[in-house]
Amino acid sequence: MLPRALLLIGALCVAGPGPGPGPGLGLGLGPGLRVRVRMADGQVAEESLEADTDSDSISIEYKKADGTLITLLADFRQEVKIIRSLILGEMERGQSQLQGLCFITRLHRNELIPSESMAKLRQKNARAVRMAEEQRAPQHLYMDVAVNYSKALPLSMHIHNICAEARDAIYTREADAKHWMEKGLDGSMFEILPQASEVTDVERCRLSADRWKPCVCHYSLCIEWYPCLLKYCKTRDDVGKISSYKCGIKSCHRCSQYDYYVPQKQLCLWDEEP
């Protein structure tokens, strides 16, 4: 059997059957966990990780230095991933106090650990500052479909809550919308957005001088640290039979870039030349 001390590498473990995680882990934190994470700019942020096994979903949330709140919600039951950004508006430039964006994509297997495993996560040292073990390839996604907030409940029960501040700015991709429609969802909740290639005078918001003209907005964000895979350890019983059990997690980091149509640059003031 492996020494128990080896099971604490990374100082995170999954409680459950099999050999215990070893002494010194302290009390379990239940379905919620707060993890201190080193950001790309060197600052430290606190991520909140929660699991709801009844709805088979997990959420990860943190606040950036500029006050932007980033939330990832994975709905395993519906195979839906929602990333929400709540951005502090520039009120002196006519924006509302808070501007919300929701990007919805299909959730694929092995993107995140299951909700039941997330609910069992424990950490030895709550003050430790963590960095992801794996840097996953960045994504660049063109969100060419708008999602109707009032009709989106069949897509995921979580949309009405997490996207409430972004009800006019909920986006997905046509390929994902087709996948969900093939599974029986009503296509009336989806609206194809104008393509820059189809409308000759639509340019990137960064290059547009007119705040009231349509343009293609660019937004980028990162999930700095998240549990992406389970780790398994092996043990041998008294008769020599080898079995495996969950003993920890692998952490990942991933950045995403989104391009999407907006009816006016006023809704995309962050996308400007520096």
From TrEMBL:
Residues 1-17 form the signal peptide. InterPro entries: Oaf, Oaf_C, OAF_N. Residues 204-272 form the Out at first C-terminal domain. The keyword Iron-sulfur does not apply. Keywords: Signal. Residues 33-180 form the Out at first protein BRICHOS-like domain. Pfam families: OAF_C, OAF_N. Belongs to the OAF family. This is Out at first protein homolog.
